[in-house]
Fold:
Amino acid sequence: KQPISIAWLQCIGSRDQDNPFCSSICCMYATKEAILAKQRLGKEVDCSVFIMDERAFNKEYSAYFSKARDQHEIEYNYCRVSEIREDPQSGDLLVQFASPNGELQQEKFEMVVLATGLQPPESAKYLADNLGIELNQYGFCKTDKFTPLQTTREGVYVCGAFSAPKEIAETIIEASGAAAEVMHLLHDRLHTHQFSREYPFLAGETFPLERNVSTEEPRVGVFACTCGETISEVVDIPALLHNVSHFPNVASVDMIEYACFPEVQDQLVEKIQQENINRVVIAACSNRTHESLFQRSIRKAGLNPYLLEVVNLREQCSFVHQNQVPQANRKANELVRMAVGRVTSAKPVAKLRHECLPSALVIGGGVSGMTSALTIAESGYDVHLVERSQNLGGNLQNLYYVAEGFDPQNLLQELIERVQNQARIHLHTQTEVVNYSGQAGHFRTELRSKQNGHSDQLIIEHGVTIVATGGQETRQHPLLDYPQVITQQDLEGKIIHQPEDIAAINDIVMIQCVLPEGSPDYCSRICCTNTIKNAIRIKQSNPSCNVTVLYKNMVTYGFREQYYTEARRLEVVFVRYTDANPPEVILKDDQLFVQVYDLTLDRLLSLPADLVPMSMSISPSEGTQQLSQLLQVPLSSEGFFEEAQVKLRPMDFLREGIFLAGMAHYPKFIEESISHALAAAGRAVNILSQETL
Structure:
């Protein structure tokens, strides 16, 4: 029967003795399934997630968790389930667990879903032996932090979950990045194979000649998708189509269930041809994700792909007006009516070829910008690398060590030397973009350089642009007025440059997830691992120092879990707090104390602190807002640059020919920034290698 109560148990096959790593995707997976259960099975279904830490570390994930908790009333229990038994009378499952204060509890559920974690494929050892590559201690493909897409054998690259558990966006980024590595290796053969993106030449498909409909009276076909009731539970599709059938020039109306399914696409093509339809309106999902798919289908039916209008009934009607059903239906009718009007007067659009300039503009001289610039330059194309400050390196300049033990300063010096010695890279430091125009293949950018007290203007022309402007640690917080309160970045500098001060400290209290007042609440991704690496360094050099970490969720996803384990082994104490009872810093008789309500002990603690390092949120770099307006590209709700599609196009902008890399997209670790930079460079080289577009 349909369950009325479902429990999701997290970390069943992860973060344990057999698999000590975090599988990265499970927290979001469970939350997504719980929301779907509420949507498909009914709001009365009881959905509970038993979770150790809320690892919502990707873009817009924090907002997704908040939506699950507040709008869908999904319950989160921060614990690890110790036992499941079956109720002999009802057959239901009895889940036994401990509340945060240690009190044993038991709840009954009709269904339990286990997050059993990710493992390497069974063929990993066989594949590694045959390819001559090494695996890491967990059985995944071994990579280096600063060359994340290269295996231990030259010329063999890796992408996706074979190197570590990861979700879709990271997989797409790494796939494009691996392709960039190959293009870099084989740059002398780029664009030597003839191909075309014109419809008759698409691999494995045949397209009929395009019909000339200029002399025909408009015959509009309207197709409305229910999206498996996701749309139709709010929008009355039969009533909508009944109204639409009376609109002028509408020759056919049809209700379809999943417009994006291949078999439904074939039915659309068949219907268009049978009814002699010469213009199409599809009322379904977002244009951003589905317009190109629908354009392809109507071209397959013999129509010009621009004789199509897509109406977004899902995000713009059913999703946003769930509690306003009459208004949602009226809006749906109006959107379709306007679409019919637009498509009736639509004209076929023919694509023309224009020259593609074989050079790139890279904005930002940090690790992402330099990596992108080097990849493009070493693939045989000129690059203008623009950095607003005097020195290259970005955040890498203030990074002295990483959790994995590698030296980022060596990486910094190597990248700078390679950039300065690469003849195809034209370096512009102390320079900003002040004007920007053009389109993919031919952009025109005006730069302003401020050097030696003089301001010079320079105009460059280029085929593509990469935005790699990075991020920064926020420092706007009243507690930073205390000399004993510093940021984690400052603490790292102290550990390196003032080791004698660290050795003399008795008590350190670290506070996670500190937000400047009024800033959006999102996970900055790198903070937990940075805190743990600093805590481990302190305990290694000063074992008697009491190090306490106050946290909401410890987000050490993937193989970073090992450093969380190591910190606990070194007796770093972790205390969870909630938003309802955040930590307070109090000064008493020249001694700093941090007060926090300990959920486990169920009482207020007052911790003495000689030093209070805070993990401040990572925000976009200065000038991000102005640059987005110049480039005419959007920003996300967190203030970072917004990609074309969060899952499938994380390195593209909607504006063609402009690509995104590194922390300008969202906070990232070094290896993630390098992968993203390679991905953006790969997309750029894909355009630059074509003489015409």
